[in-house]
Structure formats: C-alpha cells, structure tokens
Amino acid sequence: MSLHNLDNLYRQTIMAYAQHPHHYKPMLGTEGYHIQKYNPTCGDVIDLAFNMVDDRVTDIHFYGDGCAISKASASMMTDLVVGKNRDQMMQLVDQFSKMARGEASDVKSLGEAQVLAGVTKFPTRIKCATLAWHALDELLSVEK
Amino acid sequence: MKTIKHDFPILDQTVNGQELLYFDSAATSQKPQYVIDSLVDYYQNNNANVHRGIYELSERATRQYEQARDKVQKFIHAQKREEVLFTRGTTESLNWLASTYGVENVKQGDEILISYMEHHSNIVPWQQLAQRVGAHLKYIALNDDGTLNIADVKRKITDKTKIVSITHASNVLGVINPIKTIAKIAHDYGAIMIADGAQSAPHMNIDVQDMDVDFFAFSGHKMLGPTGIGVLYGKHDILEKMQPAQFGGEMIELVDLQEATFQPSPWRFEAGTPNIAGAIALGAAIDYLTKIGMTEVEKYEQSLVADVLPKLKKISGITIYGPQNSEQHSGVIAFNLAGVHAHDLATALDQEGIEVRAGHHCAQPLMKYLNIAATVRISLYIYNTHEEIDRFIGVLEEIKEYFNREFA
Ligand SMILES: Cc1ncc(COP(=O)(O)O)c(C=O)c1O
Question: Which of A50, A104, A108, B290 has its C-alpha lying 20 to 30 A from B377's C-alpha?
C-alpha cells in the first residue's frame, strides 16, 4: 500500500484546519466585502467576506462545503490576512499562487499555509488549494 | 462471460505505481484493440472523402461509413437506416434537436418537460430554447430512492407540452427510466419523446421502436468507440419535416446563387465532411459488443453490481445515492463516505491506481435537488472484474482508516 503518498498532501496540520476551520461562519449580508466563488470542476462553492477599517481587514470569514484542501487553505488564509492592508494581502496572494504553481516564492511569509506546498504533487487538486485565494484576489481587485 | 480485460491495451499499465483500475466508464469507456485497429486500418488503407469521389478509395470509405449506419440501425432496432444520423455525440444530438425541431415547434407559452436527474446536456439546450421562444421548462420530481416519479409526469404534463426529454439511464443515480411508459404519456398529450441514451446504449439492448421514442441520442465514446462520433436517431416522418442544423457540402442537392435544395435524410443533416473514421470505428465497437451480446453485457454488469453494492453498504459511513438494492441499480454508483469529502477520497483512490470520478457529474440541478455538493462515483463496464471490486473495497476501507486514524 502506498497510502503514505497521501501524507504529502494531507499533513496533520491541514486536516486539523479542515476539521476545525477558523473564521468559518455563514455570511451576514452586511459585510463591506463579499464574494462567492465557485470551483467548476467539483461544484464546491465558497463565500468569503470581510470589512476594511482604516485599510485593515477585520471580521474576515468564509463559508461553504469544500474538500479538506480547500477548507484548510481558506482557514489558513483567513488567519494570515487578519489586520493586513490591501498591498500586504496582494503580496500574500501572489506568493501563494507562486507556491501552488511550484515556482520560487517567499513561503515563510505564508505561515501555516506553506504546508500546502505539497499540492504541487497533486495537479488535480491545485484549484482546491487556490480557490479561497482567488476569491480574495478578486475582492481586492475590485476597487472600493 | 470470459474475462476480456486483455482486449483493452490501456488497462495494462500502472498508475502511481499501482496496477490501473479504471472505474470511470460513465465518463468515457476504454477501447478494445479491435476498435483501435479499425481506426488504424481506415487511415492506413481506406482514407478518402465520402459521397464524392468517383474512385475506388472513396467508394470503399463511403461503403464502410454507410455500413456503420447499418450497424447502428440494427443495434438500436431502428426501422430504417435513414433514421440514423451521425453527430459528434449526445450533446450535439440534443443541441440539434433544440435548435431545429425545438425552434420550429415550441412557441411562446408552450412547455418542455425534463427531469431533475438530467445531465447538463439535456438541460441547458432546453433552457436556451425556452428563453429564446418564451416557453416554460418543467422538471419531473424523483422518488425518495432516486427513481423517476411517474405520477409526477402525469401531474406536470399538459396540452401545452411539446417536448418530453428524459435520460434513459442516469449518470449519477444508477436508475434506468421506463421510457416506454413515459413516451406513451407524452404521445397522449401530443408531445414528442426524446430519450438521452448516453448511459444506456453502452450497457443494454436498445429498441427504439419498442420504446416508441421519437428521438434517441447517444455517444460512441461511452460504448467502446472513439470520441467525436455519436448518433441521433429520429423517426422518419419527423426527420422528413425537420430542418438541418447545419448547411454546406455533402448535404445539398443543387445550389443556386440564392437558394439550394437538400439531400434526403439522413444526408441532409450531415453537413460537411463527417467523422468518417469515427463512424467506422463506432461500427467496430458495435461489432465487438454484439459479439458478446448485449444481454450478456447486461447480465455481467449486473453481477458486478450485485457484488460491489452490498460490500459498499457494509462499510459504515457510506451513503449510496439512488436505489439501495442491486437489482434496481445500474453499474453507475454514486456514494459518499462520512467525514471524507468526495474529492479527497478520489485523490486517495488515485494514489492507489483506482480512477473514479468525484464532483457534480454534470448534473448540478440534481445535486441541488438531493442537497449534496459532490459525490464519488464508480461506473463499471464489461472489462471490470470481481477481483477489481475486491481490491477497490479493500483500498476504500484502508483509506477510511487512514483518515480516521491520522486525523481523528
Ligand atoms: C446522461 C448523459 N447525457 C449526456 C452526456 C453527454 O455526452 P457527450 O459528452 O458524449 O456529448 C453524458 C455524458 O457524460 C451523460 O452521462
């Protein structure tokens, strides 16, 4: 059995985040920023929302049914960006995208999310890892 | 049935270091050497355009292409060979119908009746048609076990219903629908009956006359044939009155500066150079299936289902969608394992060389109706074996262990 291959993807931390996701709660409808993003290959839907106060993110949260990878990734991302400003978040999104593509990146800046680097060995799952980040990217590129 | 796995060269390989186990035939089937050879033979020995050359090669290509039509006719028990149109596949067949028959016959306020278990290709073309002409698209409900609610057919159908289009076999629920019964109801109300045969033609005897369908659509690639070839069967009388979806070479008779006359069917529907090699290879796939016999195909697949379904159900935490007893379930089995998302499970199986589908299976309205986001799906075919089922069940149990143990 080669189930240990799976350890490359499903690290303990990832499963912990997936099973007990941080900032996981339904949308209120009153958030300043909200987006629903869709993964067409699997049908998973994620909602991501936050407020900006003095150019800093507050009250970030996400919701939706997703696989372990997408939930863990969203969970780690929300942890990471709390209190960050727009430019800092754009930086992080950029670094994460690079890491997921297997390109050189400043993984240290990604904190816990760097364990998701294993996804590069599972090409069919890269979209799961990047879904939340794409959602954030899209929210940030809409000027407010 | 004797084991025929060795007829399929692709199955003799390893994936992620494990022997390949292909359980995704509902998406597309693998091809036996016999079908691959027919493609090679065509291109190596007989390639020419059809219906135009005055020379030997073209005559040969044309004969083989038209022989393929005869094979399809026999395979689905059509009354006339002219009722068999070659298309790119089920999706194109259904789109042709929506854009030709649909546009000509469905008017504002009319109704089109489909069901909640349809594949997107039997939903979206009708949505587009309904939007275009101002018609209503209505959905037949399902029973708790995933079977079609026939009483609801009778509730939803009205004198305004012009088209009833239902899948013959579900690509998610493992349900076979009683098309003959539904066709009778449709005809009583003056509607035509279309059956989506993408998941039935590969697996069972098809008799379009007995079912009394007006149209029947299916894809070659799901029944051992190549991609890019499919069939639209249509009743002769209706085809005679129907406009072609496309125009150009091959389908015309005489072309003037401002107008043209067309060939009789089926040729006036097949504009341009068709997928000649594909049609011939589909003919070869039909030869191969017919040699085994569709009754035998059905019986063997049923034995696989009778083997795998109870074993799956025994694993705690498994939910199976559709009918729960194997006599009522086809070789398409969608399920979920509690605590493990379908995608994660499919990745884990892939690591063991077991190829399955995970996701919405191109049936988002069905998933919404069942209130699930995604499922794993295995789909079996004649080259799968009882040994493979045992291996699959064993691996599944280990994966369950893995996710429980490592991350409890
Ligand atoms: C029930 C059903 N209908 C239609 C289709 C579409 O077939 P194709 O993609 O070959 O056109 C499929 C294929 O997945 C199917 O399962």
Answer: B290
Cα(B28)–Cα(B258) distance, integer angstroms: 43
pLDDT tens column, A105-133: 888 999 999 999 989 888 889 999 999 99
CATH topology of domain B35-291: Aspartate Aminotransferase; domain 2 (3.40.640)
Separation of alpha carbons B177 and B169, rounded Å: 6
A54 Cα to the center of ligand 1, angstroms: 52
How many angstroms separate the CA of residue A68 from the nearest CA in chain B?
7
For B118-173, the pLDDT digits (tens) are 999 999 999 999 999 999 999 999 999 999 999 999 999 999 999 999 999 999 99
Q: Is B90 in the pocket of ligand 1 (CB under 6 A)?
A: yes
pTM: 0.93
Question: 3.30.1380.10, 3.40.190.10, 3.90.1010.10, 3.90.1170.10: which CATH number matches A3-140?
Answer: 3.90.1010.10
Closest to B196 in 3D by CA, of B129, B142, B120, B85:
B120
* C-alpha to C-alpha distance for A118 and A116, rounded to whole angstroms: 5
Pairing of strands B84-87, B332-337: unpaired
Residues 6+ apart with CB under 8 A from A129: A69, A70, A73, A100, A116, A119
Q: Is A70 exposed, middle or buried (0-12, 13-18, 19+ CB in 10 A)?
A: buried
- What CATH number labels B5-23+293-404? 3.90.1150.10
Q: Do A2 and B406 touch (CB under 8 A)?
A: no
- Please say whether the beta carbons of B315 and B396 come within 8 A: yes
Q: Sheet holding A44-53: strands in order across?
A: A33-39, A44-53, A56-63
Token output for A34: 């909200």
Please, what is the Cα angle at B382 between B380 and B388, to 5 degrees? Answer: 60
How do the domains of chain B map onto residue ranges?
Answer: 5-23+293-404, 35-291
